[in-house]
């Protein structure tokens, strides 16, 4: 477990939200690995925040399924089992394919423009080869798609799933050959969406999620 950078800014977003975002990013980037303990005293000193603020942030991460309380150990980063992964991708595949179809049906011109920017940002980040930027840009694409589906309930469920998938994204993208395949898959999805081809979009999305699930399960089985 590496130290967190102290980059809390005491303006803009509420302090509690900044702590949540920072810890969530640290987990997604692998600075906190599955099974790592989150010690309140150390985090308060590192982030220079009060214990009540930190505890509120940790409760939110616990609600998102990113950390859990282990008897005799306290809070630690969740370790997902193969069955957890199977269930997460099963639900994600069903809902995200539908979200893409709904985006096609009702997204505004502004949302289409944001999606195009997100696609370009993902490809640019992949060309740079910086893992944290790749994950951030990929998440931006998914978040834009989910926000434009016009269904707040579905968006809320998918957002919760994506928070847990952050625990896995580094695993799947680190697998040999997975990144170029992911870029190709998402580019094909984007092109089908811009062509307003709903059936093709859903087919490609199903294949994309199945591929991501398969690669992740294989990596976990191999202990990577």
Automatic annotation (TrEMBL):
PROSITE patterns: HTH_GNTR. This is GntR family transcriptional regulator. SUPFAM superfamilies: GntR ligand-binding domain-like, Winged helix' DNA-binding domain. SMART domains: FCD (SM00895), HTH_GNTR (SM00345). It comes from the Bacteria. Keywords: DNA-binding, Transcription, Transcription regulation. The keyword GTP-binding does not apply. Pfam families: FCD, GntR. The lineage of its organism: Bacteria, Pseudomonadati, Pseudomonadota, Alphaproteobacteria, Rhodospirillales. InterPro entries: GntR_C, TF_FadR/GntR_C, Tscrpt_reg_HTH_GntR, WH-like_DNA-bd_sf, WH_DNA-bd_sf. It comes from Azospirillum brasilense. Residues 13-80 form the HTH gntR-type domain. One of its GO terms (molecular function) is DNA-binding transcription factor activity.
């Amino acid at each position: 477990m590496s130290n967190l950078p102290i980059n809390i800014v005491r303006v803009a977003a509420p302090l509690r939200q900044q702590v949540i975002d920072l810890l969530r990013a640290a987990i997604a980037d692998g600075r906190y690995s599955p099974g790592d303990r989150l010690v309140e005293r150390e985090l308060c000193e590192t982030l220079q925040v009060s214990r009540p603020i930190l505890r509120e942030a940790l409760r939110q991460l616990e609600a998102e399924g990113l950390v859990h309380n282990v008897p005799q150990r306290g809070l630690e980063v969740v370790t997902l089992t193969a069955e957890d992964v199977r269930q997460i991708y099963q639900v994600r595949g069903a809902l995200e394919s539908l979200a893409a179809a709904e985006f096609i049906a009702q997204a505004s011109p502004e949302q289409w423009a944001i999606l195009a920017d997100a696609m370009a940002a993902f490809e640019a980040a992949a060309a740079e080869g910086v893992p944290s930027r790749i994950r951030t840009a990929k998440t931006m694409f998914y978040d834009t798609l989910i926000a434009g589906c016009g269904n707040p309930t579905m968006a809320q469920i998918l957002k919760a799933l994506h928070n847990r998938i952050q625990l896995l994204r580094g695993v799947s993208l680190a697998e040999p050959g997975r990144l170029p395949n992911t870029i190709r898959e998402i580019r094909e999805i984007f092109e089908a969406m811009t062509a307003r081809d709903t059936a093709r979009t859903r087919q490609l999305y199903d294949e994309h999620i199945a591929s991501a699930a398969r690669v992740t399960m294989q990596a976990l089985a191999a202990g990577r």
